[in-house]
Amino acid sequence: MKLRLMSIATMLGLIAPLVAGAKETKDIKFLLKNAEPVVFSHDVHLSKYNNNCRVCHNAIFNLRERRHYTMAEMEKTKSCGACHTGVKAFSVADEKSCVRCHSGKPRSISYKVKGATEAVFNHEVHIAKLGGKCRSCHNATVITGREKNVTMAQMEKGKTCGACHNGKKAFTVAGDCGKCHKGMSPRDITFKVTGLSDVTFSHKAHLANFGCPDCHTKLFAFKAGVKHFSMAQMEKGNSCGSCHNGKDAFTVSGNCDTCHKAFKPGVITFKTDGGDVKFSHDFHLGMYKCADCHTKLFPYKTGVKHVGMGGMEQGNSCGNCHNGTDAFSVKKECKKCHKM
After folding, report:
1. φ, ψ for residue 303 (rounded to 5)?
2. Which domain holds residue 54?
């Protein structure tokens, strides 16, 4: 019995060192959204540093603060970049060494765009054109790793894709939208106008004669909530008035119903000490066009300064036509306007 107990004790004594030396570390996979995972091998690194865990923990990798670092941060000696500087180990900034950590082919990236089709970035196509030089884009300037989505206007100023797609290195981001937004058919845009019928802008009609860069982003930014322009501002060349000037296209000061379909301006009532004065658009449009009065004589907005009878007698406001020659004079026949 004693011999049996001694044999068991001896066996346990032999097994104990094996248990104590059992592997306690494992490979760590860092998952990437658009590429294969990066695998960190504890075995490889521990063999180089005589199994001294303290070289990295917690000096470089804090086990309580589990956060991911961008390549730009690593190049500033954060995370793996503390050792991989090109001195102790290959540099994280050496693009020839990218494949030592990043295996497999990077995936294409799809960007969801509100109001347009997806824009798909093809890594394979770009890597082939750049000769495998990942740092052409991943250089902490073009792509930082924490870059938020940028607008087309920002790209035109050299942000992200616009750093290369500037019309010199590659086709410009201000060019045909369909080059990136496959199958894109821009929709009609409806502008709500207070007191008037809606204005519908047809992309299809305009794209038959113009290209996207003729308007975007110099005239119209690719985003919602931008400033709306008044008709008076358009007549000075802003917004639609840049082309609709009577030379390149019909003028914005022409007939309103060209854009405001089924538009029928109402009667305007002016409150005066001499009784209400009603202006009939319907009556005047039988003889004149909108452009005869707007916006040279009357701005397209409320709250403008009213002109008194003295001012009208000098040719302002209604007095411009009601001068006794073109139409009855504002100096006479008060009852024609003032229902007293």
Report:
1. 80, 15
2. 26-101
